[in-house]
Each structure stands twice: as C-alpha cells, then as structure tokens.
Design goal:
- By secondary structure, the protein is α/β, with parallel strands linked by helices.
- The chain has 2 domains: about 5-105 and about 220-235, Rossmann fold (3-Layer(aba) Sandwich); about 110-210, Rossmann fold (3-Layer(aba) Sandwich), CATH 3.40.50.
- The chain is about 45% helix and about 15% strand.
- Strands 2-1-3-4 form a 4-stranded parallel sheet, with helices on both faces. Strands 6-5-7 form a 3-stranded parallel sheet, sandwiched between helices.
- It holds the Pfam family CbiX.
- InterPro entries: CbiX-like (IPR002762), Sirohydro_Cobaltochel/CbiX (IPR050963).
- It comes from Nocardia callitridis.
- This is Sirohydrochlorin chelatase.
Length: about 240
C-alpha cells in the first residue's frame, strides 16, 4: 500500500445493546465522510464485533505499516490505561511490520461539552431560564476520575447558566440525588443529559430510576465528535505522516 496516511482504528467500548454498536457505526460513517482519504475502521473492546484483534489483523493484511488506535472513550479509566495497551502489545507482536500508536481518549473536550449542550437544548422547552440538568456518567472506582467528570457539569453550567449537577450510574451521587438537589435549587424543568456517546443498557437504567424526567440524546454522531476524534488521530500520528485532507 502506497498511502502514507496511517489507518484510523476507532475503538469503542462495546455493549450487549445493539443500539450502542449501531450508534458507533454511525459515528465512524461520519468520520469516513469527513475524511474519505483515510482508512477508518471500527473495533470494540468487548461484547460487540469486530474485536480489536480482528481489525488490527485486517489492517495489517491490507498492507498498512502504521495505524493510530483512537479510543472512543470519554474517560481515561481501566480500558484506556490497561486493556487497550495490552491488546495492542499482543497485536504488535503478531504484526511486527505494523506500527500501532494509541491516541489519547476523547476526554471532557470543550467541543463535546458543546455537543452535550446541543442535545439538552433539543430536548428542552425554549426560553426556560430555570432549567436543571442532571449530567449522568458511568462513574469510576477512582474518586479522582469522578471529580474530573464532575467538571463537565460545572463547565456546562458556566457556558449556559443552567443549574447542573453530576450523577453516576455506578457510584454516588445517584440520579435521584441529583434531581432532588436541582429541584431544591429552584429548577422548574429538569432534564437528564447522558455523558455517553451512545444509548444502551446504562442509559436505560438511568431513565428507569427517574421515569418522570426526560432523557436527552447521547452525544452520538455529532460533528463535534468527528472533530475531536480526528484531532486525537492527528496528534498521535507519527511525525511526517500527519497529512491533512
């Protein structure tokens, strides 16, 4: 293969819920539309196909010598720090002619917070200045990671003036606590805003916990997500191979 651009392997978490894989496929379709010059592949860490190993094998079989593995993950937790590097080390040993570079996670990028704002705006009543937003994330066993995620709610509030509160699926504060605190602060309309890339079993669990609270759409195939993924890809691409469209 003569194309010097590294392949972009976008690695999503994976889920038993088919909506999750379908959403991530739409995200990757949007990437391909934005950068038709790149070989963009979708892989999953678990529960969905194709696996990271299968995609790396396919990229190597196509003759690529470089690939940038870009985690479609909002936080730098165990999957990004341990699971994925281990998978890439094994794949690299199988394919010594293919250089694999792991890009940074998506993180609480300002553009993704703006996308979250768009999802809330689409689900809320126009002109309500006493809107309360429960920003819901998975949660981590690391208090430091949860503190970093809580900054998403704080930054959303700073950008919009909305009342916001963070909540988690797997730890405290829960979504019911967040809703209660927003009501105490005078919010007249409350929305649940998932800090998730795709719908799935966890977003359903959040919604069931507060069935009277509307649920905004996850970030999904938003143009901001496309921009951030491509930025992570470009930053991790080997010097000399960072070719723009």
């Amino acid at each position: 293969m003569n194309d010097r651009r590294p392949a972009l392997i976008a690695v999503a978490h994976g889920s038993r819920d088919p909506r999750s894989a379908a959403t991530m496929a739409a995200v990757v379709d949007q990437l391909r539309a934005a950068r038709p010059d790149l070989d963009v592949r979708l892989a999953f860490l678990d529960l969905s196909a194709p696996s990271v190993e299968q995609v790396v094998d396919a990229v190597a079989a196509q003759g690529h010598t470089h690939a940038v593995v870009t985690p479609l993950l909002l936080g730098s937790a165990f999957h990004a720090r341990v699971d994925l590097p281990g998978l890439l080390a094994s794949a690299g040993a199988r394919h010594p002619g293919l250089r694999l570079v792991q890009a940074d996670v998506l993180g609480p990028d300002e553009r993704l917070i703006a996308a979250l704002r768009d999802r809330v705006t689409a689900a809320s009543r126009p002109g309500n200045h006493r809107l309360g937003v429960a920003v819901a994330a998975v949660g981590s066993s690391s208090p430091e990671a949860n503190t970093r995620t809580a900054e998403v709610a704080q930054r959303l509030s700073s950008d919009t003036g909305w009342h916001t509160h963070i909540c988690f699926v797997t730890t405290e504060p829960s979504v019911t606590e967040a809703v209660s605190r927003l009501r105490t602060r005078g919010a007249t309309e409350i929305l649940l805003a998932p800090w998730f890339l795709a719908p799935g079993l966890l977003t359903d669990r959040l919604s069931r916990a507060v069935p009277d609270i509307p649920l905004a759409e996850p970030i999904g195939p938003h143009t901001a997500l496309t921009e951030v993924i491509l930025d992570r890809y470009t930053s991790a691409s080997p010097v000399g191979l960072r070719l723009s469209a």
